[in-house]
Structure formats: C-alpha cells, structure tokens
From TrEMBL:
Region of interest: Disordered: 31-52
Source organism phylogeny: Bacteria, Bacillati, Bacillota, Bacilli, Bacillales
Composition bias type Acidic residues, residue spans: 43-52
GO cellular component, one term: cytosol
Gene3D superfamilies with a match to the protein in the record: P-loop containing nucleotide triphosphate hydrolases
Species of the source: Alicyclobacillus sacchari
Entry-linked InterPro entries: DNA_helicase_UvrD/REP, P-loop_NTPase, UvrD-like_ATP-bd, UvrD-like_helicase_C
Pfam family, one: UvrD-helicase
A single GO molecular function term of this UniProt record: hydrolase activity
Keywords from the UniProt entry: ATP-binding, Helicase, Hydrolase, Nucleotide-binding
Protein name stated in the entry: Rep family ATP-dependent DNA helicase
Signal sequence range: none
Length: 711
C-alpha cells in the first residue's frame, strides 16, 4: 500500500486529512458490499438435504459460507475500520502509509491493502515504535525490515464517524508524551460488564508478549491491572493469525479461575474475530476428561472455610494435604505407586489353555512389560488379553477342538483368565494411593449415602486423578492442545502444570499470574522458578510492572498495603490521576447505611460498582440490606457462572480478576483484616479491582494494614 501520492503531507490539518481518507475507505467498503458476489440464499429444506450434495455443490456451499463471513466482517469493520496509522519508509524505498485495524481490508478493485491487520508483521511497528530518532524495524517472514518512521498517529472512529486524531510522533517535531495522552483517554472510559480488546493501545512490553515465539513456553509475572488476561487473549488471536495452517482455534485453551471469570472474558476473542478457542476452568476440563466419573464437593464450601474469619481445626489439616497434593514429590510418589501396582498386574501362574499348550507367566510378562511397553496400561492389558485369546483359539484348532462344547470351554477359560487380572480404574487406584501415602488421607473424598451416587472430590484431587487417568488410558488425541494459556497461574500447583504438559506435547504455554495476589497460597506456587524449572528445554520469563487499570492514587494506596510484606514486584501506576482514596470511619450500627449511601453516589458516576466484603456471609448480609433498601444489586458467589455488571456485592476473594469503575471495601477493621500477609493480599486484591474510585469503610478500630491512613 503506498498512498503517498494521494495526500500531499501536511497539505491539510490531520483531522481533515483523516476525515477525507476515512470517507474514501468507507465508500470503497460500501461499494464492495453492494457489488461483491452475494452468497446464494438457501432455505432450511435445502439445508436438510446436505447429505445429497455433490462435491461441486459442497465446494459452492463452502465458498458461499466464506463470502458470507467476509461480508459480515466487512460490514462490522465499517464501524471502526482502523485505529492507527504509521508512515514508514523501509530502507531504500518510499514512504508507506500503514493504516492498522482489527482486520485487514483490501480494495476489492485494485487489490491494494487499505487496512493492515493488527497482527501482521508490519503492524508491530505501531506498537513497538516509541520515538528512538525515527529508527524502526520489524521482523517479516522474509527477514528483518529496517527503516524510518515519520508519523505515528492514533485515530478514533466510532460508528463510521471520525472522532479524534492524536499524533504521538511527527518527524522533525519536538515529541510530547502524546502516546500516554491517548492511552489515558482510553483508560479514562467507564467499563461495562465485560473485558474488552485493547488493539488500539497495546503497549510495547505487551506487544512483545503477544508476539513471543510460540515454541518457547513463557511465564509472565504481572502486577494487578497490567493487562495479563487481556494480553493472553490477544496472544491467542495473534498465534492463530500467524500460524493459521498449523494451529486450530478448537485446540487452543485458556484456563481461567472460575466459570464467572470465563463469562467475564468471553467477549474479547469474538471482538478480535476469533471463535472456537476453549475457555474453561481446570476443574471443568478435568471432570470432562474423567468422563464425569466424580463430582466436585461444592467449591463454595472450601472457599468459605478458607476465608472464614476463624478457620475450623480440620481445615488446617486439610490445607496440609492440599499443599502436599500440589508437590512434584507427591506426583513422583504416585508414579512409584502406579509402577508397583503395574508390577503385580499379569496374574501369577501364566495362562492355562484348555487345549494344547498353555502360556507361561514369563511370556505374558514379556508381552506386557516389553513388547507393549509404549502403550498406556489398560491398552497393554487389552492387547495381551487379545493375544492370549488368539493363542488359545489356535491351540484348540491345532488339536481339532472346534466343536460347540470346546468353544464354550475356550470362552470360559479366557473369561477366567481375564478375571484374574486386577480391575483398575482411576478412583479405586486414587483411594489406594491416598491410603498408601504417609502424609495423605482419604478425608477429601466423600461418598454420598445414596446408592450409585458418584464420589465427590475436592479440586486438589483432580490433577492426581488426571495423572492416573493418563497412566491408565493415555492421552486421547482429541484432548491435545496446540497452545495452553493459564491465567491466575499463581494458584496452580506444579502438579497441575505437569499433568497439563501431557496434553500439550509441543510445550506451547503462556503462563500468567501475580504472586502478590496468591491468596490460595497452599494450593499454588511461591516462586515462578517452580514452573520455569518444569521446562528443561527452556522457558522465557517476563515481568509486567505497569498497572493500567487503576488511577495513580489507587495503585499508590494498594502498594502501601503490601509493602511491609516485601512483594517481589511493586506495581508502577500509569500517571492517570483521579479522586483521592476515601477512608471513612462509620459506627458499626450504621455500616449498611454508609455502604448504601456510597453505592448510590458512585452509581451516578460509574457503570459498575462493587461492594467487597471480607466473607461470603457478610456479602449475604450486605446484599439483604440492598434488597431491603430497594437497590438492585447482584450477589456474586462461588457458584455463579455469569457476571452482569451494574452493582455487585462480592466476597473480596471472588473479585480476583474482575474490575469495577468504583469499589467500596466494607468492614476494613482489625476484626475482619488481620496484620497478616494473607489478609494484606486480600485487601490488595480488593483495592486493585477499582478503575476510578475507591472507598474504604471501617468501624473502629481500623485494620492495622491501613492504619497509616489515620496518622
Ligand atoms: N494497553 C492497554 N490499553 C488499554 N487498556 C489496557 C491496556 N492494558 C491493560 N488495559 C486495561 O487494564 C485493565 C486490566 O487488564 P487485565 O484485567 O487484563 O489485567 P490483569 O493483569 O489480568 O489484572 P489482574 O491481575 O488484576 O486481574 C483492563 O481494563 C484492560 O482493558
């Protein structure tokens, strides 16, 4: 694309120049929509006859489907065809004006590229270029392209109307901090109930992660609000674009911490034009692979115990087991246990044939442990038994025993031999393992009294159950992933990762999290090294320290809560100033009234408001107070699978990953938040959920975690 001749530089002011260009692009798009080949309309009866279509007709239908999809994409791109422009002169050639949009658009007549897809190699310039005297480079499939940038421009188009043009770099002019100005303009918006794409404002350090090599696992420590979840979703869209021939969306997965979070992020990929990527939780994935042979104990119950103000005594013992189940040593013990179980599988005494020669134990052992060694255990058993059956049949034939009664005898002998093999299923093996392991018990398993009811297990049982499942059945090729994203990975254990590695043999992982938010410490990791060391072939580690979500005041406030506990990376606020954090003392009896008052005030300024409580019990109480006052607020609990936005009452530990325009942390007193690392992290998570406004309410005495506010 070279439009240098179409618009002489600086002939008109930037807004007019872009308004003219936009008009021309929209006209071309309209013409393409009006004149392009229309897909044939088919009625439902025709669709029912799909089986009867000839190969040519099938091809026609596929082409029509593609045309339909292209028209739909074109029509939707007309609302915002592009968001940026970069004028780039590759060494030895003239200037190219590159307009960057969510999707590439070609002029249907000339075939010229009018808009470059944000994921295209040259589009990377738009994100990585930050002045540097105009020098710029990007990597294309043909190699590195070097050159000079003369203009970088942000363009806001809404519903086909040009709204704003901001130049962040103009050759020969004094550079201002205009990139930040544009980013701040975007960050200042109120958010609705869903996470959104950030293609127009991806920052250089985020761009690097999005475009990182797919073959090298990458671990990202990112502070609250640094864009981890958003970046991970953009990375999936990028990888699919870049490796369209090798990767399939259905074979890519993002593991999120809860079903509600999956709902919250569900619109980013469709906005980026990507469908079909699996978005799930580890538990949902594990239960599906285990064919729902077990159920989870109500996940809310464990969370309620974990975050109760006073934990029941049995909880401490349970947590010791949670920690143990997440350790690689335990996985290794499981492997030892399974190898032991395997050793005794071929029944002693060989296979006694009713006619002819029997099979010696040593022969069966050789088949099982040597010849079929590369197969999973149950496949090996199946193969050995099939071979024994064939041997029995051949021996019977060789001695002429083929009549009906001989056949019956033969079948009975095979059955008897089969029965001598121990039956093996993941659940009974797991139970035996828990009984065998010195530091574990079966206390996490619950067998409901009802006959035939499925066993209930806890989330920490699932990785080990999956490991047994893999050992017994292997990995079904349909469960293999081309790429795996683990969000909130600080709550994953090394055993989770090890088990998942079997489903992604290419080791193509993007692992993101924040150790400052590890409020499930027994279940997760303490240091990213634990994961990095699990990739002996190498692993990249990156830190994101800038927080884009919250105002300067909120980040400064939140950082101070964690400082006494020496976090590994402190969040750097982006300079977006907002209201001062409000810390207000209220009388205990007035606490509901105070919360309601602030909710109403904040509702005027925000589209999403959350009241964060310390426990789920408190969330119910505040929710009831809202209902009594006629306030339509949603109660978010562990079993919720959707997030509606508006006003929400949320236990603080369930708010992780979400964000709200305004947040009210209630009951920030010494009784609800102790001077402990865990409670500091809870409060930190709560405060960093706020984009624009944060209000802390407490009754006397204030928690020591923020007593500096009273100094
Ligand atoms: N480059 C960017 N441009 C505009 N907005 C951004 C950018 N990066 C992040 N954001 C915004 O910052 C907010 C936080 O993003 P996200 O939820 O992905 O962060 P996170 O690191 O996963 O946060 P947390 O760990 O606190 O849950 C979102 O509103 C997102 O749109």
């Amino acid at each position: 694309m070279n439009e240098a001749d179409a618009f002489p530089r600086a002939a008109v002011d930037p807004f007019e120049e872009e308004a003219l260009r936009l008009q021309r692009v929209l006209q071309t798009m309209e013409q393409a929509l009006a004149g392009g080949p229309k897909p044939p309309l088919r009625d439902e009866d025709e669709e029912d006859q799909d089986e009867a279509l000839t190969a040519d007709e099938v091809a026609d239908v596929a082409v029509a489907g593609l045309a339909r999809e292209r028209r739909r994409a074109l029509a939707s791109a007309m609302r915002e065809p592009y968001f940026g422009r970069i004028d780039f002169s590759p060494e030895g050639t003239g200037v190219e004006r590159l307009y960057i949009g969510k999707r590439g658009i070609d002029d249907p007549v000339s075939g010229d590229r009018m808009v470059l897809d944000w994921r295209a190699p040259a589009a990377s310039l738009f994100y990585s270029f930050a002045g540097q005297g105009g020098e710029a480079r990007y990597v294309s499939p043909e190699g590195e392209v070097r050159g000079k940038v003369s203009l970088k421009r942000n363009i806001v188009v809404r519903d086909g109307e040009l709204q704003r043009v901001v130049d962040s770099y103009v050759e020969g002019q004094q550079q201002t901090a205009a990139t930040d100005e544009f980013l701040l303009y975007r960050l200042g918006d109120a958010k609705d109930s869903r996470l959104r794409d950030i293609v127009a404002t991806i920052q250089a350090e985020q761009n690097e992660i999005i475009r990182a090599d797919r073959n090298l696992p990458i671990v990202i420590q990112g502070v609250a609000g640094s864009g981890k979840t958003t970046v991970a979703l953009h990375r999936l869209a990028y990888l699919l674009y870049q490796h369209a021939e090798r990767l399939r969306a259905e074979r890519m997965v993002i593991f999120a911490p809860s079903a509600m979070f999956v709902d919250y992020i569900s619109e980013v990929l469709p906005e980026l034009g990507v469908g079909g990527v699996q978005q799930t939780t580890f538990s949902a994935f594990a239960l599906r692979v285990l064919d729902h042979a077990v159920l989870l104990v109500d996940p809310g119950e464990r969370l309620r115990q974990r975050f109760a103000l006073r934990q029941p005594t049995e909880y401490t013992a349970a947590m010791r087991e949670v920690e143990c189940k997440g350790k690689l040593e335990t996985l290794r013990s499981l492997q030892v246990f399974l190898t032991e179980s395997e050793r005794s599988m071929p029944p002693a005494g060989g296979a006694l044939a009713p006619f002819g020669r029997s099979l010696e134990h040593a022969t069966v052992v050789r088949w099982f442990f040597e010849e079929y060694a590369s197969y999973p255990v149950l496949v090996r058993r199946q193969r050995v038994l099939a071979r024994v059956r064939r041997h029995f049949e051949m021996e019977a034939k060789a001695v002429g025993q083929t009549d009906r009664s001989s056949k019956r005898k033969l079948a009975a002998a095979i059955r008897q031999y089969e029965e001598r093999w121990p039956s093996m299923d993941p659940l009974s093996l797991y139970r035996q393992f828990l009984e065998w392991h010195p530091d574990l018990t079966t206390s996490s398993l619950r067998q409901p009294a009802k006959r035939g009811a499925r066993l209930h297990v806890q989330p920490e049982d699932l990785p080990l159950l999956l490991a047994i499942h893999q050992w017994l059945y292997g990995v079904d090729p349909r469960d293999r992933f081309d790429h795996v994203v683990i969000d909130e990975a600080q709550d994953f254990s090394p055993v989770h990762l090890e088990v998942l590695r079997a489903y992604c043999p290419s080791n193509s992982f993007t692992i993101l999290g924040d150790l400052s938010q590890s409020i499930h410490s027994e279940a997760g990791i303490r240091d990213w090294r634990e994961f990095i060391d699990q990739f002996p072939g190498g692993c990249r580690y990156v830190e994101l320290s800038v927080s884009y979500r919250s105002t300067f005041e909120i980040i400064e406030f939140a950082n101070r809560i964690l400082r006494p506990f020496a976090p590994s990376v402190e969040a750097k606020p982006i300079f977006r100033s907002g209201d001062k954090v409000m810390v207000e003392e209220v009388a205990w009896r007035d606490r509901f009234e105070a919360a309601l008052h602030h909710m109403l005030a904040m509702r005027e300024l925000s589209s999403t408001v959350a009241v964060l409580t310390r426990t789920e019990e408190d969330a119910h109480v505040y929710h009831n107070a809202c209902l009594e006052a006629g306030l339509d607020a949603h109660l978010l609990t562990a079993d919720r699978t959707d997030y509606e936005g508006g006003m929400s009452i949320v236990p603080i530990y369930l708010a992780k990953g979400l964000e709200f325009d305004s947040v009210i942390v209630v009951d920030a007193d010494a009784h609800h938040y102790h001077l402990s690392e865990r409670d500091a992290k809870l409060l930190y998570v709560g405060c960093t959920r706020a984009l624009h406004r944060l209000c802390i309410l407490h009754a006397d005495p204030i928690t020591r975690l923020i007593e500096w506010t009273k100094a």
